[in-house]
Fold this protein.
Amino acid sequence: MTGPARLGIDVGGTSVEAVALDADGSIRARTRNPTERGEDGVVRSVLAAIRALDTPAKTIGIGIPGRIDGGRVHDAVNLGVRELDLAGEIWRRCGAPVAVDNDVRGAALGAASRTRAKSLAYLNLGTGVAAGIVVDGRVIDGSSGVAGEIGHLSIDPRGPQCACGQFGCIEVFAGGGSIARRAGEPLERVAERADAGDESASGILADLARGAAAGVRALALAVDPEIIMIGGGIARRGERLRSEIAGALARAADGSAFLASLRLEERIEIVSPDDAIGAVGAALLGDRLGA
Ligand SMILES: [Zn+2]
């Protein structure tokens, strides 16, 4: 197809992934470029992605970490952004309508486009842990914009302290940033040590599965979605992660006919790391603009 497309830009901590989406949802162009930090750096990175797509824009949707309010980004700490009128900056330079939302909520829309399910939760296990909830094609924002922030649900009051100030949050056990801090090395190294029989490394992986399983239960009990898709950097662990979380879900359901009846281990799916759901979902954010 030719003519204007919906552009979707997913701004991550290290790279910006972008797609141009045709009316039928197929990807016309796809690019990736490094993320520059700071307010000006983020604007430059998004503009570089738009230029690289080399496709006229019908709408521009941007998914970015942080608290989003009317196209403005607040406190995207990992990007070095305190406050940025991202929608305004991009609109002034490109002239196309711009929608901005939190990256995990954008990815949830992208995940929902991969299934016929009417209700879906997307659990992102990245540097941090958060979820997006989509019901009948709409993302739930909540009254103050924190719907889905289940990474800060405490599951162990005697656990390690979280950056949010609470103790034993899901994010402490299942967030890549916290795992790397506790282990002193990234998850891939922890997994290698666990494979070699190291007990402390196996314990970290067991905590990861327990934390992710608690997130799945929270989403299931609050929303009862048909599918819970799991993505983010940690989901690169693929089938092993799925079976570890399924095992933790089954152990928690042991002795509870109620939990067992929910068959949660059958509702979880891992997003393929090659699937650009963040950028695709960002492109779908543009549909909110009615352009
Ligand atoms: Zn927390």
In short: The radius of gyration is 19 Å.
